[in-house]
């Protein structure tokens, strides 16, 4: 069984992190049963106007949720714990995710796209690092075994435009071969079923 899945996401998006975590668990089960799956990681920016320097994430959340911001943070942190993830918000930085997506494209060409994506999610949501800072990104690349490169900016811009032109307005989005797209933080079992069906019905086909 062999198939391809496209995953559209943004690093600062908590639902993308949940969705990616569940997708990787579904992929692990699929691959353990002999399945083969290529993951195409497609970028989306929830806030393309965010600065490289960034600002405190709590500030951004307060603008979005107002008086409910603290309750939202508590709720999301508890949900993350149920996924086995540790979320920290006190010193988290909300910044531009373009360079992080570019690094993922670089890593993908080296066969480490999934690993780099996971590390960047963790850097933002757990380690409270600025994922727009190049020195930080170089350190994360080295940790993950990715050879640093300044290439991929045009490729990333083109991918962002392609995703926007496809009608995506929120993330995460999963596209399995020959099946309608799935959106939101889908359950692991749902993703495993979609992988299996896609592999059986449309092998080697996007």
Automatic annotation (TrEMBL):
Pfam families recorded: DSBA
Sequence ranges assigned to domain DSBA-like thioredoxin in this UniProt record: 4-195
Matching SUPFAM superfamilies: Thioredoxin-like
Record-linked InterPro entries: DSBA-like_thioredoxin_dom, Thioredoxin-like_sf
The name this protein goes by in its record: DsbA family protein
Native source species: Nonomuraea indica
